[in-house]
Specification:
Shape: globular
Helix content: 25-40%
Number of strands: 8
Oligomer: single chain
Number of helices: 5
Radius of gyration: 16 Å
Distance between the termini: 58 Å
Largest sheet: 8 strands, mixed
Order of helices and strands: HEEEHEHEEHEEH
């Protein structure tokens, strides 16, 4: 009996298409980044570790359970726990995307613990925001090879500050999510644009 349903293959194709688009923008160099989508039974389709995200094939998408354990013998990304922790916290989230872009990396260099985005029209691309007269905070966490510890730090931040739209890991890109792969991709594009604007605005000031 195969564990991979028609839904798995549909989500895999969506992740593959997202990977091609994200790579076309230069946001996942080499084999960086990882993407996932939740299935109706709670299991998760996620990219196999070490695969180039712009050249993904169906075989590069694997199946894990909600705890991040492989269900098909393949090796998931080292950051799988960051995906599963987002799904546990946000029941409505169905996709998580993690690019490793220049803008996210530079943002972590220019700003210490968070970047504030406010009064931008493009904020309306994010869920729950219907006016440019809005302000969001994207936290920046130190990179950590101990992923359970890093996931716990993110959880602690969310407990203290409430819901967020994404977070940056210094030197390691950022995570964002959505109610579908398309929604998560829209959030990724919007945050990328806004990071770029803030870098141009503040970078020349040499904070």
């Amino acid at each position: 009996m195969t564990l991979k349903s028609d839904e798995f293959y549909l989500k895999a194709e969506q992740l593959i298409a997202a990977g091609r688009f994200i790579d076309s923008k230069g946001w996942v160099p080499a084999t960086s980044g990882n993407f996932s989508a939740r299935l109706a039974d709670g299991n998760i389709a996620i990219t196999v570790s070490g695969r180039h995200k712009g050249r993904l094939q169906t075989d590069d998408i694997m199946l894990i359970d909600p705890q991040g354990r492989s269900l098909d013998g393949k090796k998931p990304s080292a950051e799988t726990l960051l995906h599963t922790s987002i799904y546990r916290r946000y029941p409505d989230v169905q996709a998580v995307l993690h690019p490793h872009s220049v803008n996210a990396t530079l943002t972590a260099r220019l700003f210490q613990n968070e970047i504030v985005l406010e009064d931008y029209e493009l904020l309306k691309a994010l869920p729950g925001i219907d006016t440019h007269e809005s302000r969001i905070v994207v936290p920046i966490f130190s990179n950590d090879q101990d992923i359970p510890r890093l996931a716990a730090e993110v959880e602690h931040y969310l407990d203290a500050h409430g819901d967020i739209h994404g977070y940056i890991i210094a030197g390691h890109g950022f995570y964002t999510w959505g109610a579908s792969v398309d929604d998560a991709l829209r959030h990724l594009e919007a945050l990328e644009f806004l990071f770029d604007i803030e870098i141009r605005l503040h970078g020349v000031k040499r904070l």
